[in-house]
Amino acid sequence: MLDAVVLLLVLLFMVKFVCAFVHALKECRGELSRVYLKPRPGEQRSYVAVFKCDLLPLTARGVSREELQGVIDYIVGLLKKCPQLKIDRVHNGGSFGRRTMVRGAFDVDLTVFVNEFRGRQLSYMAGDWSDGMQREMQRAVANLLRDQGLRNHVLEVEHGTHYKHCVNLTARVMSVGGNKMEAVDMDIKLAPNVVQGSQVADRGKAQRDVLMADVLRQPARFWFWSRPPPKPDADPVREAALAEALTAVVVRISDRVKAVVRLLKCWYKYGLQAEIPNVPSVLLETVVLAAAQRLDMSKHEAEVSLFLAALELLDAAVTRREVVVLEAGPVWGYTRAQAESCRHVWRNDPVVVLHPIDPTCNLAAAGRTIHWHRLASKARALRRVVLHDSMHDLLVCSSLAPAVAAMFQSGRDF
């Protein structure tokens, strides 16, 4: 009986939301039908202004950060009590940690930096982080959470959309406004702590420097009769251990760029994911950030220009095999020359979007099938709508429309 009442209330809320959305669109349909990116005679409103002031703010509404942070703190507390693990620190990453999350379509990535497992000190450099060792640690964490009453919410994932060997936990938190509960996925990934014993304040920076030293080192000269030094290869363990560095790069990005990041993610999550699954969220973020480096983001129309540039770059990565590189700078990232030195790793991949910290890691080299050409076609079509059609067409008739409808809910910004 209680479930039926809850279901009825949810249905009533959805009907009310849809009616409000349709009513709002009808009120502004006539006006927005005359708003184009290239202004026309007699146009009263600016396309850029509507895009910036009305559309982009919708992307920043979602669940309560306070409620979600409370869940994260609780889980971190449990992890630190695991008798089989000795933990150095836990990093809150993912789109929540990078502040690029979108309502109802994001997860939390907790990276647990491990010193010891079952009394044994683990060394990444010595090869202790084998698949078998990771599975054992994964199982220990999953069992700990199940023992705490979370049995029905814990899943051990061997091969996810992006990471291997993680524990997935589904948490329920209150949405902004307190009108319903939101389900949030939390991925718990165990990673090596390669700065054990270090007293530096910025562990993430020190971790990056140690892990990337061999990858980014210029190849030494060798005589033709000697064996050449080994070329660096991709390593999922190293990638997971660079989570702090990735967050550090993205959180420094301007809010104007992050707003476009969220919009592109909303477009995919709400409008395309069912048809084109398995595209990693971090890949979409990287495409937008790489596109932003080619633009002057101080201009008034920068957000619209960036959205167009990101769609074009996504298309180019697929149809022209353009290598997408975010130049994160010498502190965290690498140069294009250093990226090219790792081409042997990903040269045969159909799509290449490089990890901002580790150029051996191709974010597009997912373990699951992705219909890249279908995604590129969607990007081209949406770009044409922005360039040539009205704002009403963008909001109601394009592949962005499902995202606009999903975002059009009352609530306060993050």
From TrEMBL:
<dbReference type="GO" id="GO:0001730">
    <property type="term" value="F:2'-5'-oligoadenylate synthetase activity"/>
</dbReference>
<protein>
    <recommendedName>
        <fullName>2'-5'-oligoadenylate synthetase 1 domain-containing protein</fullName>
    </recommendedName>
</protein>
<dbReference type="GO" id="GO:0003725">
    <property type="term" value="F:double-stranded RNA binding"/>
</dbReference>
<keyword id="KW-0732">Signal</keyword>
<dbReference type="GO" id="GO:0005654">
    <property type="term" value="C:nucleoplasm"/>
</dbReference>
<feature type="signal peptide">
    <location>
        <begin position="1"/>
        <end position="20"/>
    </location>
</feature>
<dbReference type="GO" id="GO:0016020">
    <property type="term" value="C:membrane"/>
</dbReference>
<dbReference type="InterPro" id="IPR043519">
    <property type="entry name" value="NT_sf"/>
</dbReference>
<dbReference type="GO" id="GO:0005829">
    <property type="term" value="C:cytosol"/>
</dbReference>
